Amino acid sequence: MLDVHPAHHAATTRRDFFIHLATIIIGLLIAIGLEQSVEALHRLHQRHALEAALHAECEDNKARAESNFSACYDEMEWLLGLHGDIQKMLATGGRANLPYRELRHRPRPLSGDAAYTGGSVHLTTAVWDTAGEDNRLALLPDRMAREYSLLYHIRGERFSQLRDEASEKVSRQHAFEAKFADAGTPLTPVLARMSAADLKEYETLVMQSFEAVHDEKLQLLLVYATNNGVLQGLYDDSSMPRVYREGAAAFPDDFAKTAQQIAAEDAARNKAAKPPAMKAAK
Length: 282
Known about the structure:
mainly alpha; 6 helices; rod-shaped; two-stranded antiparallel ribbon; 67% helix
């Protein structure tokens, strides 16, 4: 606050008094105006810094979401392949003696890593969380704040919940598989040890895992579309259907392609399991 010092001579007339009073008031108004201008510039700087940080976080989450789509595809292909194996075991009364189909994640880039081969990953929320804790979210325009809240607080949290539920279902499936595994290979069940009742229970668990992963993927589409919307500066509801269609077109449910990939895996597995032909005796 600027200090305003009045003249040291005493006002002798009413006119001098009002001039003296006006000088003080004008000085105070100038000081207040300068202080508010500095504060407004500071808030504007904070807002721009927050918008830049949120934009960078959304760029990171875009890459994470695209990596998660690949993880979901790998898991759904694995689970549908397992479902097919179980049906073959049931159809042959367990005589098919198929080996366990293991989950293999295809290498994919993530946050600068050359190759990431794990499952789905959490979306980052550090900037949003910190801005909420120190009340900086109030700096954002209402429409922008509403869209970010939709992204993080509603759709992002729902994705995290469905991701955890899918992980729980797959863990329950693995716990069942462990009952039919050897001590030396506890993660590799022997399907031939399962009775028809076991196979049917196993089939139910596998399909529950598949449905959970698919639900995770569908929610990820909503997160991805909303994230792309804020990256493009689209904060209106009318733009969301278009952005969602673009995301759905980029990451569709192509189960026909999945079936072809499973068939190719089966052919390679059958070829590897087939004993080599006996050479003709000379």
